[in-house]
Amino acid sequence: MTPSAAPTLLPFRTLTQPQERVLRAVAALPFASVHEIRRWVFPACSASSARAILRALAGEKDCNPEGYVYRVGLPTRGNWLRLYVLGSRGAKQLRRMGVEVAWYARGYKVCNYSFSYLRHQHAVAQLLTALICFCRAHPFYQVAETLNSYDFLREPPLTKLMTDGKETEVAVIPDAWVYVERVADQKGTD
User: Fold this and answer.
1) Cβ pair 54, 22 in contact under 8 A
2) N or C: which end of the chain has fewer CB within 10 A?
3) Which of 20-24, 75-79, 163-167, 186-190 has the lowest mean pLDDT?
4) What's the N-to-C CA distance of the chain in angstroms?
5) What's phi and psi for 143, nearest 5 deg?
């Protein structure tokens, strides 16, 4: 029996421009499927082209620690849906490109996430993607800034909570925060 050959991965310096764009999108939109990444990065591209780029960045298999991104399937029977999240190699590559990386997944954790956690994170990715697509279709609106829950981990917003007559501050980490501007006559925001 011969050991299976490890997938050949692209070295750090040879990522193509579309691969770099996809890597940036996966960092901004964790736990997204091929469909969200395609709509986020390549609105006119086919899903098979986006799938090929993501497959190459993932090293051709699920939970590959050598990939730039982790590809994780929902823990169900059958080959249903694959989600993509930034791995440590992808975070290193983005930092080399000058992109700030707030969070990346660790392989030993990402492959053990529950079905409900993955579906919830995917729903957040779908919501953010729908918002981006809405703003592309309606040029009077633009997304000025988006933050996901992982962007808040270092400095979470605090709120005051009254319990038993005592006021305490607790951290609140939202699923997403989006700042949408309404552009008035191409001259600024309202």
Assistant:
1) yes
2) N
3) 186-190
4) 67
5) -85, 115
Q: How far apart are CA 10 and CA 109, in angstroms?
A: 24
CA 64 and chain centroid, separation? 17
Q: How far apart are CA 30 and CA 37, in angstroms?
A: 10
Instruction: Residue 152: count other Cβ atoms within 10 Å of its Cβ.
Output: 19
CA distance 169 to 182: 34
pLDDT in tens, 123-155: 999 999 999 999 989 888 888 888 888 888 778
Token pair recorded at residue 101: 């990386």
The SS3 call for residue 181 is strand
The DSSP result for 96-147, as a single string, is: HTT--------HHHHTT--HHHHHHHHHHHHHHHHHHHHHHH-TTEEEEEEE
Rounded to 5°, angle at Cα 135 from 133 and 139: 130
What CA–CA distance (Å, rounded) separates 94 from 107? 18
Q: Amino acid identity, residue 44?
A: A
Condensed to tens digits (0 to 9), the pLDDT of residues 4-63 reads 555 555 555 578 899 999 999 999 898 999 999 999 898 877 788 899 999 999 998 888
CA torsion, ordered 11, 12, 15, 17, to nearest 10 deg: -170
Distance of CA 40 to the CA centre of its chain: 10
